[in-house]
Amino acid sequence: MKNNQLIYGIRAVLEAIDADQPINKLFIQKGLKGELYKELESAARKNGVSLSYVPIEKLNRLTRNNHQGAVAQISPVQFHKFEELVEQVLSKEKFPLFLLLDGVSDVRNFGAIIRTAECSGVDGIIISKNGAAPITDDTVKTSAGAAFNVPIAKVDHLKDAIFYLQSSGVVVTGATEKAENEIYGLDFNQPTAIIMGSEEKGISPSTLNILDHQAKLPLLGKIGSLNVSVACGVFLYEVVRQRKN
User: Fold this and answer.
1) Close Cβ partners of 126 (under 8 Å, ≥ 6 residues apart)
2) What are the DSSP calls for 28-65, one per residue?
3) Rounded Cα–Cα distance for residues 97 and 75 (Å)
4) I need a surface site. Which of 61, 73, 162, 215 has the fewest CB within 10 A?
5) Angle, nearest 10°, between helix axes 158-167 and 82-92?
């Protein structure tokens, strides 16, 4: 059954997974047993659905209905398949612009980033299936509806997505205060992907090691970093500035 973008009940959630519904998160009651539960768990893992095992009290807070130990949060937008999105964009755009998010977890930051991405001509946003902020009503509201206009793809591993982009001729640049060079020395008049890190940790070290470039913004005050959505806007509009000149 559905209620305010929730699906509850093991069979109902199974049907949603089989129908390829865009599920943000699946909550399963700790300690559940039985064949139907095993079928649900297997289907979720096979389809890359993010799983959390929670106490029954959590599920009772999500819905007062008979959830049978399983509640799924449905995304208000449909996700795109990563490789299909990349190939479609590359076939149409001479200098495509992709945006990757490495662990951005706040839904309002995510919404603000989506809004800026839409305004700056981003061709596709790529996030990880695990650890990324879900697309909720708050995300859509903060994006001012842009979440319906920018293609968004989920991937199992962000590093694999980066390798795929690089093998397709896309230059991947990471935004990090650890970089030696500022963004203004880079050339964005080529196929480009910008990657932004999480609010707390930034881009993971293992991901930084495989990027084509790392770049930072000049910070002239006493605070050592910008909000990720603000920094993302500055990076994207430097791409816009270069391409309009």
Assistant:
1) 82, 98, 99, 100, 101, 152, 153, 154, 155, 158, 161, 193
2) EETT--SHHHHHHHHHHHHTT--EEEE-HHHHHHH-SS
3) 24
4) 61
5) 30
Query: What string of DSSP letters covers 186-230?
Result: S--SSSEEEEEEBTTTBS-HHHHTT-SEEEB----SS-----HHH
pTM tops 0.70, yes or no: yes
From residue 231, give the alpha-carbon distance in Å to each of 121, 155, 218, 228. 16, 23, 11, 5
- DSSP secondary structure of 88-128: HHHHH-SS-EEEEEES---HHHHHHHHHHHHHTT--EEEEE
β-strand partners of 172: 193
Residues 100, 216: Cα–Cα separation, whole Å: 16
Helix (H, G, I), strand (E, B) or coil at 181: coil
